[in-house]
Write a structure and sequence with these properties.
Elements lengths: L1 H17 L6 H5 L6 E4 L5 E5 L2 E5 L19 E8 L2 E7 L3 H13 L3 E8 L5 E7 L3 E8 L5 E8 L1
Antiparallel strand pairs: 1-2, 2-3, 3-4, 4-5, 5-9, 6-7, 7-8, 8-9
Length: about 160
Amino acid sequence: MRIRILGAAGAVALSLTLAGCASPIESIIEPQTDAEITTDGEGGLMVETDTGSVQAGSSVELPADFPADHPVPAGRLVSAWASEGSWLLVFEDVALSEYERMLAHYTSSRYEEILRTASSNINDHQMAVYESTHWNVSVSWEDVRGGNLNYNVAAR
């Protein structure tokens, strides 16, 4: 239930921010949830609850609790979601070589490759899924916005 509240509050806050309603976000959502919402005046926002956080915009930072033994690609972090041992990060301006470097890390770190796909006809979309005794990881890359990379790390 708490993850749903975090996701719903984040989705509503992001929608209102993108629609230009940044100033009333706190007064509309915060009283209805346990979420604390912060906007930066430039379309960015942070939604925090006792179970996690959602960030979106031009000044997104890597969540402080993101596990240090997982690689982070060179690129611009535009969205970050964190909740109880799970992180979903969205990057733009990521070169294909960065995606390949990340896959090499998981392969050399003895993660089992569960799935690997590539499609050259739809924005050169590529995806890989790995697992270890402690982690599930999925990484996808496509040739849009200078290279868009979605990265999900979750404790098992």
